[in-house]
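Supplementary notes for students who missed Thursday's class. We covered one full example, reproduced here. Read the sequence, then the structure, then the short commentary at the end.
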Amino acid sequence: MKKAILVAGASGNLGNRICRELIKRDADVSAIVRNSTDPDKIESLTKMGVKIVETDLNSVDEIAKACAAIDCVISAVAGLRDVIVDLQSRILDGALQAGVPRFIPSDFCTNYNHLVPGENRNFDLRREFKAYLDSSKIQASSVFNAAFADILKYNTPVLNLKDKSIGYWGEKADWKLDFTTMDDTAAFTAAVALDDHAPRDLEIASFQISPNELWAAVKETSGQEFRIYQLSSLEDFIKYIKKQRADNPAGENELYAKWQQAQYMYSMFTTQHAELSNNRYENLSWTTGLAYIRSFVLPG
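Structure (token representation):
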């Protein structure tokens, strides 16, 4: 019998991919969406075979109706407190009211359980929702994919194609950074949703690559030798982040304020995914670091 999976945040970049992977695995997929959702995004989901359920996401009762006979709810929503804590809590309450046995929260990030509270605003919001989730009786599984590999394309200090530079903090030139592509994250999440015995926490990474290895991959791909250098000590970096946040109070209402982006960078250089679950499911292929670099770094 097909498993019935409900996806919240299905119109987003990751959510759409998760729906695609679930359909590939012969799941019966539904998506709860607001009536204001972009029609083109709804059409994309409908064409792949997803059942669209327009829902008042402010109503737990309406969410519960959408969750009737569902085996697992996947939350792929993104936002600040009103989404990660408030909306996810309503989605969870609706799932509980409908008797849904399993829930996958929007924990698509580094495993924040290893990090110090207060060092990353967005992780703290997920940590707050986790406490509420774990106080319920539903079976939860979090997929921690570390950093999305896409950030390597965005000219961050870790890899700046425009400046032809690779930067790192602390004595971390050989520190392994965890990256997972959206497609790999989606495929693994779909497998977790269909796995009734999935554990509470699962760490994954398409590839783990140090700044020095990143330099070598860029050279092999492009023939160019980028400048590689230490940006600052980790101690100075965290001081800088705190000052940047204090000087920019408006950023508290921005999902990716500059200081929040810096907090993500700091987390990448202070924690690693040590127990990867990549081999938990057969028939999953993982993107290598070199293959990913080759997908967007051009020969010189």
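Commentary. The chain has two domains: 4-147+179-203, 148-178+207-272+281-294. The chain has a mean pLDDT of 97. If anything here is unclear, bring it to office hours.
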